[in-house]
Write a structure and sequence with these properties.
- The structure is a single chain.
- The protein has 382 residues and is mainly α.
- The protein contains 14 helices and 2 strands.
- The chain has 3 domains: 44 residues, no CATH class; 163 residues, no CATH class; 91 residues, no CATH class.
Length: 382
């Protein structure tokens, strides 16, 4: 709802038609007619010069607040107060759960503080410098997190940091500016809001508009282990952020740039191409990993590894109840279930090494090699 509102009002601001004629009772900034849900809507934007404040006045703020509150609640439930999703990865850094949680919180708060400091102290005077510092901070935080937390947690925490910045912009800049505007109308001062506050509100509103697509991408990134499990995960993360912002920029230009459709297609194609190339750097297919040895592997050997390292979770009767029974609908209780998902086992346990999560069952490289050879030899049952 929050992002939908952002996109809608951005579209409205760019689509409003200037009022025609003179002698009107008010001086609107623009008007527009809309057709939706079986009816016509008339929208007018004005600063209410010399008019009383109408009632009721509908504010657009709770979508932002509830998004942030629910998101932070999920971080608490999924990462900080339990271990339902792996936060600390021993294969990345030797951190306790508490230490990893503090790192995650520090990244969110630190990123927001850096952004807020730049917007208040530097951006009004030297906006280019503020942008350089913030982008440098985003890169540094992304790299640092990939050296401390699990890949899945890194992507979600960078997304949570951007979402926190967006919610902070609403709560600390945009809403105060609107309250001042409302107050000026009630007091009969007209639209005499602080020029500095109004300018900053507009600036952060534009930033929020550009953050929307990167945040969406990072929030759903946990479904793509080939991204967060890659050795260059921080580079892929930044490419996703840049691609999302670039797509948003082209869509913002479509009112004044006639060739926006080819430009949009080009941005998407280039982004996909860069991701494809980066994801295949240092990527070793399962078949190549298995080539180190030609020794045949029986199904019994492969199943022994799966029983020890995978069915702890991936079973209808798991011994580890962290993720519930058969997470993702994947169970390895029968030979048929194992053979049917041989290729997926190769991708997750061998190629991307994102399973088991943070290697919580301590699978060894030798055991991964057994799985790789079994899959390369056909991944068949007995």
């Amino acid at each position: 709802m929050w992002i939908g509102n952002s996109l809608l009002f951005n579209w409205l601001d760019r689509s409003l038609e200037p009022p025609a004629g003179a002698g009107q009772t008010r001086s609107p900034i623009g008007r527009i007619w809309l057709l939706h849900s079986g009816g016509f809507y008339y929208v007018e934007k004005t600063l209410l010069e010399g008019e009383s404040l109408p009632h009721p006045m509908h504010w657009f703020k709770w979508q932002a607040y509830t998004t942030w509150l629910s998101g932070f609640a999920l971080l608490l439930v999924v990462y900080y107060l339990s271990d339902r999703a792996v936060l600390a990865d021993p294969g990345v850094a030797s951190l306790t759960h508490t230490q990893a949680s503090l790192v995650g919180v520090a990244a969110i708060v630190g990123g927001w503080a850096l952004y807020e400091a730049m917007q208040r102290a530097v951006a009004p005077r030297v906006p280019a410098l503020a942008m350089i510092v913030w982008i440098t901070g985003l890169v540094a935080i992304s790299i640092a997190l990939t050296q401390l937390l699990s890949g899945r947690a890194v992507f979600l925490h960078v997304g949570a940091m951007l979402g926190t910045i967006m919610a902070g912009n609403v709560a600390m800049t945009i809403v105060p500016s609107q309250r001042e505007l409302e107050k000026s109308v009630i007091e009969g001062r007209g639209a005499t809001t602080s020029a500095a506050l109004s300018a900053r509100a507009k600036r952060v509103s534009i930033h929020n508009n550009y953050f929307t697509f990167p945040v969406i991408v990072l929030m759903v990134s946990n479904h793509f282990p080939s991204l967060y499990g890659h050795t260059l995960s921080w580079v892929l993360l930044l490419v996703l952020c840049v691609a999302g912002a670039a797509v948003r920029h082209v869509l913002n230009l479509r009112w004044t740039y006639p060739q926006w459709k080819p430009a949009l297609a080009g941005v998407i194609a280039l982004s996909v191409a860069i991701l494809y190339v980066l994801m295949h750097i240092t990527f070793t297919p399962t078949s190549r990993l298995a080539a180190a040895s030609t020794a045949p592997v029986s199904f019994a050997e492969a199943r022994h590894v799966i029983d020890r390292r995978c069915t702890v979770c991936h079973s209808m009767s798991p011994s580890d109840l962290t993720f519930g029974a058969a997470p993702g609908g994947v169970a390895f209780d029968t030979p048929q279930q194992i053979v049917a998902r041989a290729a997926r086992i190769g991708e997750r346990a061998v190629a991307t090494r994102t399973m088991p999560p943070a290697n919580k069952t301590h699978i060894t490289d030798a055991e991964r090699a057994i799985l790789a050879r079994w899959i390369a030899q056909g991944g068949r049952g007995n």
